Amino acid sequence: MFWEQETGIYDIPRKDFVGPDGRIMGRPLLGALHTISLQSLSAQGVVLLGRFTGIANGRLNFADDVRENMQFGDETAAETRRHIDDYIARNCLDAPPAIDDPAETVAPRLPNPAILSLNPSEHDISTVIWCTGFEGDYSFVQVPGLVNAHRQPLEKEGLTDAPGIYFAGVDFSSTRKSGTIHSIAEEAERLVGHIAARR
Fold it and tell me: Model pTM?
């Protein structure tokens, strides 16, 4: 996180990382003391399944995309490292040389054949923890034109079309940093400045 902040990754404006379909890539998994990668989790005994696609006849169904998901994670990590290494070289910083991350070079242990469907009762699965990230539910905002069909704020950098109504702390509102603790001071200053200028 230090390098992402230092190199300006967190300051990339929203328009530069929103996909053509309007979707935003989720935040990466960040380990406190070591890298968390899908292949390192599999090497520790975690059974990796593809994207959940639904339930049919009491069976949980999954896409056959585990390898693609690992590749996407590896490519994203490599792109971030390249960005950081380029920053170090450009600024002639005295930093240790880059080394391969063991969490990303370990061979994955994947089910063969891939598990595309399973019956929870046949595998003694009694609990499912659904952790796919979170979005705020702004359906309590009853002012017309302030939330979209997905109950997410219609705002730009915290500002809305309704006088006196602002949103703070919304993920990816203006930059990659928006919605994290790193953005609090900037966001507060911007919104307070806008409010003061209108008085």
Answer: 0.69
